[in-house]
Design brief:
alpha/beta; six-stranded mixed beta sheet; binds adenosine-5'-triphosphate; ABC_transporter-like_CS; P-loop_NTPase; ATP binding
Length: about 230
């Protein structure tokens, strides 16, 4: 079985007993010729970021399963899973050095590199998003929020993941730059948190809405195979 499949994913926070999401099930084909984008929306605090972190196995869920090409994270190995189902945070934690240093460190860890796929140069990609080349040699601490957002995203795409888990990836961008980034992301399989109705209208193959209380609603599931 190919693709990224999520079955009955449920999380109740042990600290508070609050159910953030219950029985989330869907399946995304991973097809580079026809990439699907599942948009995730819901009020602040509903659990959108937490859902993405559970999909990346960066935090545990309570029940349910996730598989990539029919294999669980345990079968693939956690490092491999997280490289293939790649979470891109809204605000990355403080990273020492420059973006170029960071790329060199990633390249050093072979598990992060996908073999046999066409390499995307993050610096070239950044150019198409209005990021000057010099910026890759500045310290992260000197970059603006929108620059960090694009650098992080360009590096994530350059690792050639199967699924990008995007936490408000364009929230700090002006409309023109946002359009450029969206044009790139349209070519990738994404699960994408947004608070923008316009962006949702432009980009969604399907929409998952998290509601307080943990139930989920689906709309526009024309392309994504959604089990309800
Ligand atoms: N590890 C954790 N332990 C306890 N509570 C947590 C943990 N992680 C998240 N929460 C709580 O879960 C709820 C959902 O948080 P989350 O960041 O997933 O929301 P969100 O929908 O992404 O919100 P926003 O739109 O504001 O980014 C919040 O009330 C948060 O405080």
């Amino acid at each position: 079985m190919g693709g990224f499949t999520v079955e009955n994913l449920t999380l109740r926070l042990p600290e508070t007993g609050v159910t953030l999401f219950q029985n989330v099930s869907f399946s995304l084909d991973i097809d580079r010729r026809n990439p699907q984008r599942l948009m995730v929306r819901g009020p602040s605090g509903a659990g959108k970021t937490t859902l993405l972190k559970c999909l990346a196995h960066l935090m545990p869920h309570e029940s349910g399963s996730t598989t990539l090409d029919g294999k669980t994270a345990k079968q693939l190995g956690m490092t491999n899973w997280r490289a293939r189902v790649l979470y891109v945070p809204q605000r990355p934690p403080a990273i020492p050095g420059t973006p170029r240093d960071f790329i060199a460190k990633l390249d050093h860890f072979s598990a992060q590199r996908r073999k046999g796929l066409p390499a995307t140069d993050p610096i070239e990609l950044g150019k198409s998003w209005n990021l000057p080349v010099e910026l890759w040699d500045k310290n992260f601490s000197q970059l603006s929020g929108g620059e960090i957002q694009r650098v992080t995203l360009a590096i994530a795409i350059s690792r050639e993941p199967d699924v990008l888990l995007l936490d408000e990836p364009t929230s700090a961008l002006d409309p023109e730059t946002c359009a450029r980034v969206e044009a790139t992301l349209a070519q990738h399989t994404c699960i994408w948190i947004t608070h923008s109705q316009d962006q949702e209208d432009r980009m969604a193959s399907a929409i998952l809405t998290l509601t307080p209380g943990g139930s989920v609603e689906w709309t526009g599931s024309t392309d994504v195979s959604v089990a309800r």
